[in-house]
Amino acid sequence: MERKIRSLKADEIECRVGTISEKGATLLLYKNARVDQTVMDEVFGIMGWQRHHCEIKGEIYCTVSIWDTEKSVWVQKQDVGRESDYEKAKGAASDSFKRACFNIGIGRELYTAPFIFIPADQIHVENKNGKRTVRDKFFVNRIYVTEDKVITELEIVNQKGQTVFSYGKPHLGKTER
Q: Is the C-alpha dihedral spanning 173, 115, 15, 50 positive or negative?
């Protein structure tokens, strides 16, 4: 029996600043490991999946296994992770888990996100030690994803609730995710 991985909800998606220039900043959409755990529990049950980490040639890999009751076998997906700037080992383990979950289909719609650019007049840029940083926080306010995991609508707001990016046209009467 094929189980369907749902699309991510707006409050499960994080926005992070990518690049910053004089003209503005780009945003990238992410999910975190807690979201993956929640979706795995919803779809496969807390006893229907497991994860295992191992080191191969100095890199941290995560294997996510899902129990296939029909075939009585564990089905596995694996991917490598990268260290974070803060906690290297934990960051690599978390990143490898998130990547393995992408292989299963969790958050795959994020790969279809449009190019997100916020003009300079809508953000607060600071210079810290000669490096540009953005003080603002950004949140996905609204998203619509088709059945085949393509983002067709996206609205991003700042910490004040002001819309700073909008993509697609809202469709009345449809279910937002």
A: positive
Range list of β-strands (E), 4-120: 14-20, 24-30, 49-56, 59-68, 73-81, 116-119
Distance, CA of 94 to chain centre: 12
The tokens describing 85, both together, are: 């700037």
Nearest 10 degrees: Cα torsion 158, 150, 98, 40: 110
Q: List, for residues 54-79, the tens digit of each pLDDT value.
A: 999 988 999 999 999 999 999 999 99
Helix, strand, or coil (residue 11): helix
Neighbours of 62 (CB within 10 A): 25
DSSP string, 100-127: HHHHHTTTGGGGGPPPEEEEGGGS-EEE
pTM exceeds 0.90 for this model: no
HSE-up (13 A, CA, CB side) for residue 15: 28
Reading the block at residue 27, the tokens are 């945003």
Both tokens of residue 5?
Answer: 């991985």
**Contact status, residue 66 vs residue 104, Cβ threshold 8 Å:** yes
Separation CA 95–CA 81 (nearest Å): 5
Q: What token pair was written down for 30?
A: 């992410």
